[in-house]
Amino acid sequence: MPLLAATVSLLAALLLAAACNGDGNGNGDGDGADGDSDDATPGATPTAELSEDAKATAEALRSEVTGRIAFASIVDKAADIFVMNADGSDRTNLTENPANDADPAWSPDGSRLAFSSDRDGNLDVFVMNADGSDVTQLTTDKSSDSNPSWSPDGKQIVFVSGRDETPDIYVMDADGANPVRLTEDPPADSQPAWSPDGASIAYVSIREENPEIIVMNADGSDPVNVTTLEASDSYPAWSPDGERIVFHSTRNGLSDIYTMRPDGSDVVRITEAPETNDAFASWSPDGEFIAFVSDRDGDFEIYVMEASGAAQARLTENPGADRDPVWTAQ
Asked: CA-CA distance, 290 to 307, in Å (whole number)?
């Protein structure tokens, strides 16, 4: 599937489409369920029942992960932001708003979440405390603003906006002041992710009708296309040490999770479940694990795996679609 409409984030568009198609709500118990082992399209054939050994492996993996994961989930045909323990337990709806809330992004200290919402009529960037309180709107432009990502020092937020016609990457102060345009590409740019050292930003841009991953300096200079295949490469996320970027790609047919070096070399495929779409990956704070979304059991749910792709476990089991897991240590 090509990159979705330029004026909204890919994630928000998928969530809105799922809601319109009548997906259920996301009020599951959040205790986690076993799984095996856009771009992505729902409706994969469910995998076979896990063996007892596979169930034990998944349970052991859930016992190793720590921290919290925020994600978006369909609730009553709209998307809300949830948070849960990294093992899938203690799941809480933070937004509970009739509008669509998506694109959660943790502040570096884990005290705040930035997100995008159409509660004001079109997509804008908001922030809130980690418990869902003190919601503050940061952007008010008539165009769509989405895909927020914090700078490592927490002082700035990079985001996507269509305020100058073509969606481009912008940066603003963490309170919404001083927005500055970083890209001016004729193609649509989206999904920015700031490197841990603050020096670079990875993002997605349409190049020759394909979504490709670009890495540029944090001031917008020296953009380099690091993926050049005729496939959809999307949602880059930096490892905590900055040595790898995880992303999803359709280069082998359906969507799978890959990692690569920031210069595009040493590409490694880490998921390849048959007839399955795996997408929207995020590293654990220690770099040992990756959370991701998969439809391998017939609906998009949150999973976790070792960074190598081994020992995968399902964390959510909801009738509605879950998207965009992001991890914090706090």
From this structure: 5
